[in-house]
Design brief:
Oligomer: single chain
Distance between the termini: 159 Å
Strand order of the largest sheet: 1-3-2
Strand content: under 5%
Helix content: 55-70%
Structural class: mainly alpha
Amino acid sequence: MIDKQVINEKIMKALQSVANFKEELLDVIEVSNIKTSKIVQNKKNEKNIHQTQAKDPIRSSHSSKSGWIRRLIIPYERSVMGVYQVKKETVKMFEELCDFIDNELRAKHTSLNKKIIEVAKKQGYYNNILYTIYCIAESHVTRRYSGDFDYYNSDFSYDILQSHLGQDLKYKVFDRAKQLEGTISHPNIETLEYFKLTQNGLAVKWWDDDGELRKEINFSKQELNVLDATLSRRTKVWGAYSVKKEIIELYLKMWSLIFQEIEADIGWDKHKKRILEKLKKGNYKFLLDYENSGFLSALLKISENTVRQIIPNMQVLNVKDQDKIIQDYLPISLIEKINKEIDFYKRTISNDRLKNVIDSMIEIDSNDWKLKVSRVLVEKEDQLNRLIDYRKDNNFTKIANKLIDYSDDDDLKILALYGIEKEEGLNKKNNKLLGKLIYPSNISAYNKILKSKEEISLELLGKLIILKEPIRRTIDLDMDKVSSSKEELGKTIDIINSYIGDEEPEEKLEIEEDSSKRAREDIALPPISDKNKLEEEIGVNKNLQSIESDHKSYDRNNRSVGLKYRDFLKLLLNSESIDLKTGKKIAMQKKTLLNVFIKDVNQELYEYVGDQTVVIEEDAIIIDEFYTDIVRELVASEE
């Protein structure tokens, strides 16, 4: 009688031999005796074949030297595998994992092929090891492309793998799969659209719909758990990247304080504490706000309102209801810590961050001119250039008018006033302000610039700043022509004096000299019967005279300097100004023109003052107020 056990062993050996033989055939295919022949196909069929190969990563795979993919039987496949790139990357990882498992098994004097046969003998739905490995690869690839969303939870597949290959190898496979996730290619357009990913391959979130925030900030797992559990807000400010960033960072800072205090004995409600502990671990994501009176939404709104408060001219929110929700939910000591954090944030936010916030808001609403006013004001070091940047803005005059009210910078104000007047003219208030900023005698120069309609710029500002102070006029004369004119004028005066002298005796006016030395010069004047009338007409008194003493150098130790024009300067100092008519008559006494006479006076003073001292402003001769004290000292040294 034949032993059944012996027969079964012989059958199993035969099956093993066949399996080994098949494996060898799959690994090596002899093609040396195959004759080549040209396959003729029409273009339509050829195109279909290429398309099929392109859409089937299993058929187009070039990495299957070990034959794993050809031995794979897929009883069921999820719809996500219809995305070509997902299927291709899954096949690639599957083969990598098969090679890895085979190497690990061979180190223990067995192989993946042997394990496949052993498990196959048991039969059953879950004894397809290769499909189990394929599902594991699929879960890692889809999780990577979906932004950690479980399109397929691989826990069950890992449990099956453990039952076939042991726990130690299961953990090694998991570690290897996590490593291989880093080699998965960046999602293409089809994959991005299927998984609704951002351009940088991250899952779209309501708080980060383009993935830029997660690219810039390395959020912790706890922080992502909180954000995923928080209901979305869609107010205007969330469209501004820098504002959104400030809100989320402040919001997560509040949560950091909450998580730090969870373990503390500070009067927690036990039920609420358990919910927050689950949230911290990521085990409570959905419907949390609905079941807890909107606590997360309240905290987020408080954060948004805080950021709104730091933006000038920004509308703030009504958060009374949210304050009450938070007070009912958290212990008092924790609320106090959160309030301190909010106050600290508002006091310490940097100017650069504030600029970024306002710039971000302007990007989403370029017509908000009040934001632009705020942007100029926070630009402490370069307000002028920022105003110039807005010179062609549709709301420039509104911006400029507001800046005039808020700014303390006179240069900014004068540039803004010019820009307003160029566009639409000045109102009464601004016209009065301009009169204070521009020196009165320079208004005509300002109007000349205004008439040119020159665009506001730093160059224009340079011209306007000059007009804030009195302009020192210089007199450039052709001295040859002056000498000729002076000679002609002298002859004319002599003729007039001769003519007048025939009718009435010449009346002389004496000008009092210094007591130490007197020199007299006759001043020829038209005959006027009333001497007091003459004095009233020319505005000089009996002390008016001309000094022709030699010029002496100025001694700073109060010694006499011998000023040639001392009495003229003394007259100017006493009367503060001399009208042009009187000045011309005084110059005529010297047989010269008024401008030449003033130039001579200035030349005499130049050695002591170093600048033009006597000037003509608004039809009057004056001493420049900057040098009045020096001239007074010079004149006093003669007395």
